[in-house]
UniProtKB/TrEMBL annotation, chains A, B, C, D:
The keyword Ribonucleoprotein does not apply. It comes from the Bacteria. This is TetR/AcrR family transcriptional regulator. The keyword DNA-binding applies. Keywords: DNA-binding. PANTHER family: HTH-TYPE TRANSCRIPTIONAL REGULATOR PKSA (PTHR30055:SF226), HTH-TYPE TRANSCRIPTIONAL REGULATOR RUTR (PTHR30055). It comes from Cytobacillus gottheilii. It holds the Pfam family TetR_N. Residues 40-59 bind DNA. Residues 17-77 form the HTH tetR-type domain.
Amino acid sequence: MKKRQVQASVKDERLVKKRRDQMIKGAVTLFIQKGFHRTTTREIAKAAGFSIGTLYEYIRTKEDVLYLVCDSIYDQVRERLYEGLDTKKGTIESLKQGISDYFKVVDEMQDEVLVMYQEVKSLSKDALPYVLKKELEMVAMFEHVVTLCVENGELELSMEEVKMIAHNIFVQGQMWAFRRWTLQKMYSLEQYIQLQTDLLFQGIQGSAAAVEFQPDT
Amino acid sequence: MKKRQVQASVKDERLVKKRRDQMIKGAVTLFIQKGFHRTTTREIAKAAGFSIGTLYEYIRTKEDVLYLVCDSIYDQVRERLYEGLDTKKGTIESLKQGISDYFKVVDEMQDEVLVMYQEVKSLSKDALPYVLKKELEMVAMFEHVVTLCVENGELELSMEEVKMIAHNIFVQGQMWAFRRWTLQKMYSLEQYIQLQTDLLFQGIQGSAAAVEFQPDT
Amino acid sequence: MKKRQVQASVKDERLVKKRRDQMIKGAVTLFIQKGFHRTTTREIAKAAGFSIGTLYEYIRTKEDVLYLVCDSIYDQVRERLYEGLDTKKGTIESLKQGISDYFKVVDEMQDEVLVMYQEVKSLSKDALPYVLKKELEMVAMFEHVVTLCVENGELELSMEEVKMIAHNIFVQGQMWAFRRWTLQKMYSLEQYIQLQTDLLFQGIQGSAAAVEFQPDT
Amino acid sequence: MKKRQVQASVKDERLVKKRRDQMIKGAVTLFIQKGFHRTTTREIAKAAGFSIGTLYEYIRTKEDVLYLVCDSIYDQVRERLYEGLDTKKGTIESLKQGISDYFKVVDEMQDEVLVMYQEVKSLSKDALPYVLKKELEMVAMFEHVVTLCVENGELELSMEEVKMIAHNIFVQGQMWAFRRWTLQKMYSLEQYIQLQTDLLFQGIQGSAAAVEFQPDT
DNA sequence: AATGAATGAGGATTCATTCAT
DNA sequence: TATGAATGAATCCTCATTCAT
């Protein structure tokens, strides 16, 4: 599936890219503040630094802006995720590192993640698949890292389990953003990473309690 | 914190309750289909079976409807959660049962959960706390059950861990609804319950394989 | 073919009729002054004496107004035409009378005829047939009167000729309106009626010259 | 009255002529399809084969395009009319020939005639007279031919009658275009010419029936 | 209590025209 | 001369809310 094309009247590709970046930047700020529906196209144009007429030289409909914004945020998150994720090693340690990095990215991009998270549903049936595809790609990155660990014999997991784990990691990252109203009151980012990682690896029964039992070995 | 009062012009409390129930029922259906913003008050009135004028006898603003809807859904979920959750026993078994029941409730009320999930953010700063409060109450229910297990010596967990676990369980339930576009393609509800429960209790390293290997160490 | 229904949100049929009459009246005046395209919906609402919101309670789109206007004008012309046209007699005299009456109606409703004449083409492919149908009905009225004359032996004409004549009469009526910028400078209405009637009955060769040949009279 | 000047920024007269011809050609096609108001200047520029910027080097306003188009169409029709019309002979035969030729021109240029017919009214008060002048010139051509017949003693008509006849001929030509939705369903062009010519010359009473009666006189 | 007609602020989008390159 | 990006006034239409009946 290729990138969904948002039609622009302006031909100069470089300009289109530039203007759309302005646009996205302005729009994200607004969407964070008031959400997609409560943001007007005029506000977007203004925030982007050009007139309403110009805005419409680079998009067809307001929804295009939303698509562009979501698309862009996903790209950013994914890119940063990709940098951090060492997809070669296949060791427990590198997996832990990957999770930690991902959570940190989410933390830094909280606002963006939140927007994307809350507004994707406003995308038309037409645009949605393109965005969901990207989400799955990110999940697949975790899947890959975990799979490597399995292949290396560091973990023993079925394919179903691997997939489930990848989804869980992904959602727990987002969770840090969309439940920040409560989680970030209780935990620091480091604590959150530590706790989630421990729980993920040890499970409820394998945590502290299990440790205590281990002296016997 | 008491229930937020939505003002009605009509005095007869019984009637208010009745009309609001009609209203909520109609609105949920509409919100599921088109979301809050794309649903008009006229549509809500029609779906509820009365006129737009009458609608406004029972609410002050459109947002009131959203609040009422979210509130109602939370109440339903919570109530059903409460029925299932045996908050006395404090055994691993009853915790597993509780999780399973919760996931099943979410499965049955998928649409509602989704609406609530996606539209809460449209609530005003004014109404939001009341709804989030309810969410925390539900989390607290899991917290309580887990705590009992700890107190009974079935599990050994810190308070931070308990809280984290409760949030994880809660979110993993919702996840079944809001990620249904991918999860429900891969797993049946039973599988999902099984997998998540196993992972929760054993963690990645504690799953079947790891257990087998541990004797050797 | 039944009347094309223009949807109204308001149920009360009497009110719909009343408001639409106001609307049409205002719109005709505006269309006469500036044409359909240069008239805004707000102006129409204002001219009708109510708000833009109310306007849209009685129509779906701006084009509906145009349809309503054209429809109404046709109805008026047709009705007045029908009153005047003695469709029973079937004598040359009554035909002449009919033409004269028709031309007088056009003269009185010049502005309306002009509007209809110039704006029908702006109707959508959807609405156009309904309006053209009415035009044909009017032509058919003349056709009928002429046919009667033929049946009475007052005239001897083929069906093709009858149809052609009916169309000619109809267009010559309209012509008085749409070519008024020149015709009405040269002729009074009475002259116009006299000239057209004479030409119609006698033809070029049968006019003045023919008189000379009629020594018998 | 001289040709109304449409201002151009470009000086080179030859270029102006060339570009305007491109422009008119493109615009006519568009006006035929969607009418003047629904055609955008961008579309016109595109259809003409140059940019919007260039378009405005050769006109001042969108209305100028309409004027240019109407003017051009009139010129074409008039020119072709002029070729056909033998303005010297002054015989019934040459008049009939002229009418027939004119009707054929209209038939061939239907779309153009229609555009001109329907859109002239959109011209500003400023430009209108220039176009109407051309129309009168065409009418005058018929007037002239008929007058010659009168002078030659082939016809006996008053000046009023001559003018009326000229207008009738002119309108009956246009009629073939603007009432084509019905006329062209009923008649072939040849039939139409035949019928109209006969009616014009003989009148209702002078057709077949009258002929029969004439022996008696 | 119920109704639904009326309101008008507000929002998305278009398009003629300009002007710097 | 030619280009096409930028502009923003103008326009159609929607919809939450009110209020007289």
